[in-house]
From TrEMBL, chains A, B:
SUPFAM superfamilies per the UniProt record, alphabetical: RmlC-like cupins
Protein name in UniProt: Cupin domain-containing protein
UniProt cross-references to Gene3D superfamilies, sorted A to Z: Jelly Rolls
Annotated InterPro entries: Cupin_2, PKS_Associated_Protein, RmlC-like_jellyroll, RmlC_Cupin_sf
Length: 121, 121
């Protein structure tokens, strides 16, 4: 069995923005922590929902026709296929739940795209 | 799209111990909040992992050959098929991630067993 991990301690491993780190799994879903600052990129995940849980700070989730402002403790699931762009004016810590197959920038390849191997390191 | 839910506010809906409430979903996994106090019952979930995230308080997870003490912020996945018994000496708040099909007392039916319909209410 994988030993317990402390969520706050897990963020010590995160040194770069927009570079998720895998910290656990449940039924083929991965738990990842990430520090965000600035905007990522407009993208969608065609076959997979993506859950954002704001651990610290604030995040504005832009959608094509509206935006949702998220604060600490807020949980939002982006349904599969929905275009979105996360924007953090200040540093924001998030816990993500998504399948192992999810690419965090969708099919957009940018200099922020990280392979699953990089996310496991 | 389901609007965001605040994790701490979600616990306001929980009035009984050992009575999980569904607060969200991602890729056929349900997010549930529960308040725990005392011991539940020895059980396993044959086909499904179950993730515990300690939001407030402490939880002792008993296994057949050892126990793990969890504190606030700790995350532990119970692998499918592993017998376990959560014990909270004092009130403990947990966030759970498990498939819609998971029965929270496994195949043990007790007066604490809650149907999915009850968990959605």
């Amino acid at each position: 069995m994988i030993p317990p991990i402390n969520l706050i301690d897990a963020f010590d491993r995160v040194t770069d923005y927009w570079s998720p780190k895998v910290i656990g799994e449940v039924n083929d879903q991965l738990l990842k922590v990430a520090k965000l600052k600035g905007a990522l990129v407009w993208h969608a995940h065609d076959g997979e929902d993506e859950l954002f849980h704001i651990v610290k700070g604030k995040l504005r989730m832009e959608f094509e026709d509206h935006a949702v402002d998220l604060k600490e403790g807020d949980i939002l699931t982006i349904p599969k296929g929905v275009m979105h762009n996360p924007v953090a004016e200040e540093e924001c810590w998030v816990l993500l739940v998504e399948p192992a197959s999810t690419k965090h920038t969708g099919d957009e390849i940018t200099d922020r795209t990280r392979s699953l191997e990089e996310q496991m390191s």
